[in-house]
UniProtKB/TrEMBL annotation:
Record PROSITE patterns: GNAT
InterPro entries: Acyl_CoA_acyltransferase (IPR016181), GNAT_dom (IPR000182), NAT_camello-type (IPR050769)
Keyword flag Transferase: yes
GO terms, molecular function: N-acetyltransferase activity
Keywords for the protein's UniProt record, in alphabetical order: Transferase
Organism per entry: Puia dinghuensis
Pfam family of the protein (one): Acetyltransf_1
Tagged with keyword Transferase: yes
SUPFAM superfamilies xref list: Acyl-CoA N-acyltransferases (Nat)
The N-acetyltransferase domain, residue ranges: 5-174
Name of the protein this chain belongs to: N-acetyltransferase
Length: 183
């Protein structure tokens, strides 16, 4: 029987489960010097992602949380209207547990497709993300999906920088085609 993959929104009720998935990947697998306290978005998913107009999803394989992805919609400081031109989103917390990685599972691809579809439907035009040099497989994944590597200086001024990130990507949403990622 084929495992069931389901993508669902995640709220604060699942924040401990989200942290338990993300922290070992960051700290143990990739040796990123970051703690839960360094990531306040994990303490309040709803305030960090949903309230500004973004979203946070989890991928479940037969009921087990296998991966996550978040969409931040940054708002300029002091802007009560929350209007950004052009409208951008920032991908955060895209992590997949090691046993569920790879094309055979499709977890990362489904998470990204869900985020891009939501972004498109909600009027966003550009997506950005930051990652670290050692996450080579992630770089290849984003590039297969049409993301273009950009210099830090090319990021929008409202991009929320994470101190550990040193590699950045951009995607113009209208150019996204999920078939790019297929072999």
């Amino acid at each position: 029987m084929q495992p069931q993959l389901t993508i669902l929104p995640l709220s604060n009720a699942r924040r401990d489960e989200v942290a338990e998935l993300i922290l070992p990947i960051q700290q143990t697998e990739f040796h990123v010097p970051i703690t839960l306290a360094d990531q306040p978005d994990l303490a309040d998913l709803e305030a960090a992602y949903f309230r500004p107009g973004g979203h946070f999803w989890g991928a479940f394989v037969d009921g087990e949380l296998a991966g996550t992805i978040g969409l931040l919609v940054p708002v300029p400081a002091g802007d009560s209207r929350g209007v950004i031109h052009p409208p951008i989103g920032v991908i955060r917390k895209m992590f997949v547990k090691p046993p569920f990685r790879g094309k055979q599972w499709g977890v990362a691809q489904r998470l990204l497709e869900t985020l891009v579809t939501y972004s498109r439907e909600n009027g966003l035009e550009h997506l950005y993300l930051g990652t670290i040099t050692s996450m080579k497989a992630a770089h290849r994944f984003y590039e297969r999906n049409g993301f273009v590597r950009v210099e830090k200086t090319a990021l929008p001024t409202i991009f929320p920088l994470m101190p550990v990130d040193d590699v950045f990507y951009h995607l113009e949403i209208r150019s996204y085609n999920s078939s790019l990622a297929q072999p």
